[in-house]
Amino acid sequence: MNKRGIPFAAKEMLNRMAYDCARKSAPQIIKSRMTLRNSWTLRSLVYNKVSKTQKNVNLMYSEAGSTEKYMRKQEQGYTRSHSGGIAIPTSAAAGQYKQKPRTRVIKTSLRFNRVDAMKPRSVSGKTEKQKSIIAIQEAIKKKKKFLLYRFRQHHGVWKLDGGRRQGRGWPGGATLTLIYDMRQKRHRYPSSKWLADAAMRATNDGARAYEDALRKQIDIAVARSAAMAAKDATIKV
């Protein structure tokens, strides 16, 4: 029993833990902590079983994780920096104008790499309000829907809706909505600990898996012993 049963039970436990981590715990945690655009992240989750040739319990191990490098950043946390400011999407970029924090993915048409933001020309000798009016009038004239501009203490990418050209003052019907906040030149993205917590959940279930596998081996050993005993009794008769 000790020579075969315990190594088999240990292998079953490690394999079960890796499977549960990659196929059950990790997907649940990722869905609850991350805003997923598609199923790519979940499909990147993999696990490796204990080597079939490994008989030494002390050298057995199984693995679970993701094949994508960005998931390592999500696990450990990371920092981004840019002299022009880090583009942090607002709730409006996902169509959730009053929702904080954002819980939906960014609209396809409002992804940063698809937004053609106009940088208004600089003007001097004007108040902040006058500069804003000039910037919006310029965007309307050039038929631009996005502006890279500092407006009301907020620097970032603004979405321009409506508005018509007119002589002076704020263009009639024009509204500005901040979709990317770029005030921070350095931003720290915290660790999500998706893998550590998933592994912990799987570990908590590992004892049950080991118990089940060990009980199975005991049942096999008992059945084998009973069969051998019955065979000996038949021979003696």
Characterize this entry briefly.
The chain is built from 5 helices and 8 strands; from the N terminus they run ααββαββαββββα. It is of the alpha+beta class and 237 residues long.
Task: Supply the key terms.
5 helices, 41% helix, single chain, 237 residues, 2 domains, 4-stranded antiparallel sheet, 8 strands, alpha+beta
How would you portray this structure in words?
- With 237 residues, the chain is α+β, with helices and mostly antiparallel strands.
- It is rod-shaped and about 110 Å long.
- The chain folds into two domains: 5-77 and 190-236, no CATH class; 84-186, no CATH class.
- Helix 1 (5-33) packs antiparallel against helix 5 (194-236).
- The strands form three sheets. Strands 4-7-6-5 form a four-stranded antiparallel sheet, covered by helices on one side.
- The protein has helices spanning 5-33, 40-43, 69-76, 128-141, 194-236; strands at residues 45-48, 63-66, 78-81, 88-89, 146-151, 154-161, 175-181, 186-189.
Instruction: Quickly count the domains.
Output: 2
Average pLDDT reading = 87
**Percent of residues in beta strands:** 15-25%
Roughly how much helix do the residues carry, as a percent range? 40-55%
H-E order: HHEEHEEHEEEEH
The unreliable regions are none
Straight-line N-to-C gap: 29 Å
- Report the C-alpha radius of gyration, rounded: 31 Å
Order of strands in the sheet with most strands: 4-7-6-5
**Can you count the helices?**
5
Label the structural class.
alpha+beta
Strands, total number:
8
Report the principal-axis shape: rod-shaped
